[in-house]
Amino acid sequence: MIEWPPEVEVAVPSYQRAELFRERTKAVLARLEVPPEKVRVFVADDDERDRYERALKSADLAEIVVGEVGLDRARACIRSFYDRELFDKWLLLLDDDHGWRRCDPEEIWRRAQGNAA
């Protein structure tokens, strides 16, 4: 079991994929052993937030954040959101449609540390 450092946060932009998030992305996060309180999903609008709230349990993630429509704008919103919070933290940005067959949390963490050097 990997113990995720407190300085790691996970952001997942997602659009019209609440069920896919519940079925696939949540499974990936579980295999990566990411604590739910470290995960935020960024959705396009209030209607999307409502859909995700119905599809997910509140214990599945820290927060559902209303952002922007479109991947580039969603990522800009994520950067803006975390600029206020992440001064000494890492941000892991995941796609909502990944069903990674091989999820080795320690390998991902080693690669992330190597990319930061």
Task: Tell me about this structure.
- With 117 residues, the protein is α/β, with parallel strands linked by helices.
- The protein has a single domain, classed as Rossmann fold (3-Layer(aba) Sandwich).
- It contains four helices and four strands; from the N terminus they run E-H-E-H-E-H-E-H.
- The chain has helices at residues 18-31, 46-55, 71-83, 105-116; strands spanning 8-13, 39-43, 63-66, 90-93.
- Strands 3-2-1-4 form a four-stranded parallel sheet.
- The longest helix has 14 residues, at 18-31.
- The two termini are 25 Å apart.
- The model has no long low-confidence stretch (mean pLDDT 78).
Task: Give the helix/strand layout.
Blueprint: E1 8-13, H1 18-31, E2 39-43, H2 46-55, E3 63-66, H3 71-83, E4 90-93, H4 105-116
User: How many strands in all?
Assistant: 4
Distance between the termini: 25 Å
Count of domain modules: 1
| Main sheet makeup | 4 strands, parallel
